[in-house]
Design a protein that fits this description.
Helix content is about 0%, strand content about 45%. The chain is mostly beta strands. Strand 17 (about 215) and strand 18 (about 220-225) form a beta hairpin.
């Protein structure tokens, strides 16, 4: 594909991040005195840790700081921000990279930074998750200034299968210099010594039974909306932090190919949007869908539709992955909030926007697919994550080299 493809969205700013344009799925905006705004981005892999971009003028983004990882066998795929505290997830890897767990390695865990001076992030503490069965933390959620909810390992947790080594954990960070665990939950049967039998593996694509996104919203601080890869979508009751309980779940894997990634509740409408991440190139694990669930009864989640996509035949051969991944998650802060408009990323399918007013027939209303970034090993764009600010400015990132794309909607939302 030469040139970009767009409908009802236009590119207003772009930055390849000083040549390190491979970004993971951590995006957050910090508001500073005088109206200054910094976007913090987690990198997909080494050598960079995170980057701060001044987006005060979204048409002229400017990198102001980039930090380095401790070594090349780790990644900081996820971050989140509350006030001036930046939380960054560290996952360790073996010498073969992704798919080769770096068990019992430092610095597996979460590092907290003071970014009150964004030009000079200062480490506050490192919460270690290192252990003989742990390869650290993949994703975290931090929106209330008190608790980090995350998908990670622990020093005392040994999974029966290493693919199941990351589970739901929560730590209290009200004193950011001294975080401590307040809760954990794992799928029964996945830990060595569990009374429950191990879960049945996916017969075609065994991605594992481990936590991914672990979202907790102010509207329901007693619920975790979590995806658990091949274990599907899970709702946890955390009214008693020390004893989380599963109150609802939904899992179409198999027959569908697994890797449940994000669960976004639309509270005003009793719906949940769920993504299954595409993790293989050239359409090998198609279909990877974005589902709409009826959640009027959280104990009985019912799928009612999926977000429409262009034909697999049109995108599978473009290079890299094509299928669902991340959503704009309606997080608190300087962020767009909607119970009807959904922003989603689809790797080489770009970023796409949907009107779910009729949840049985959701409709695409806009999309933007950048041209193939220079130097990308995928040969096509791989839009990895999306964040929409309260002014309806859309920020999307490429997984490999494309960096940050800043977009403006050309349709009312």
């Amino acid at each position: 594909m030469s040139g970009h493809e767009a409908h009802n969205m236009k590119l207003i700013g772009h930055d390849t991040l000083a040549g390190y344009g491979g970004i993971g799925e951590g995006m957050a905006i910090q508001e500073l005195a005088g109206g200054r705004r910094i976007m913090w981005l987690a990198h997909e892999g080494a050598p960079k840790n995170f980057t701060g971009v001044d987006v005060t003028n979204p048409k002229k983004p400017k990198v102001i700081v980039q930090t380095e990882l401790a070594h090349n066998q780790m990644r900081s795929n996820s971050l989140d921000l509350c006030g001036d505290i930046l939380a960054v997830a560290y996952q360790t890897m073996g010498p073969k990279g992704l798919g080769d767990p770096g068990l019992d390695m430092d610095p597996a865990g979460i590092e907290l930074f003071d970014v009150s001076d964004p030009l000079d992030p200062k480490s506050i503490t490192h919460y270690s998750c290192k252990g003989p069965g742990s390869f650290g933390v993949h994703q975290l959620w931090f929106v209330d200034g008190e608790t980090i909810h995350f998908a990670g390992g622990a020093p005392d947790f040994i999974a029966r299968n290493w693919l199941d080594s990351q589970f739901y954990r929560a730590i209290d960070v009200r004193n950011p210099a001294n975080p401590y665990e307040i809760g954990r939950w794992w799928m029964p049967g996945t830990r060595e010594g569990d009374d429950a039998p191990p879960p049945k593996r996916h017969p075609q694509f065994d991605s594992g039974f481990r936590a991914h996104n672990t979202n907790v919203y102010p509207e329901r601080p007693d619920r975790v909306y979590m995806c658990y890869l091949d274990g599907g979508t899970i709702i946890l009751d955390i009214s008693d932090n020390a004893n989380p309980k599963m109150v609802g779940s939904w899992n179409p894997h198999p027959p569908y190919p697994g890797f449940a990634h994000t669960a976004l509740p639309l509270f005003g409408r009793d719906l949940i949007i769920v993504t299954d991440e595409c993790v293989r190139n050239d359409g090998e694990d198609w279909p990877k869908l974005t589902w709409i669930l009826d959640a009027r009864d959280e104990t009985n989640l019912v799928p009612i539709s999926t977000l429409p996509l262009p034909p697999i035949e049109e995108f599978a051969g473009r290079g890299g992955r094509f299928g669902s991944h991340n959503l704009h998650e309606n997080r608190p802060g300087p962020a767009y909030q909607s119970d009807t408009i959904v922003f989603a990323t689809f790797f080489n399918g770009g970023v796409r926007v949907y009107d779910t007013s009729n949840p049985y027939q959701p409709a695409e209303i806009a999309h933007f697919v950048p041209e193939a970034p220079l130097g990308s090993r995928a040969g096509a764009v791989q839009i990895n994550d999306v964040y929409v600010d309260e002014n309806r400015i859309v920020y999307a990132v490429d997984r490999h080299t494309g960096g940050l794309y800043i977009l403006e909607m050309e349709v009312d939302i």
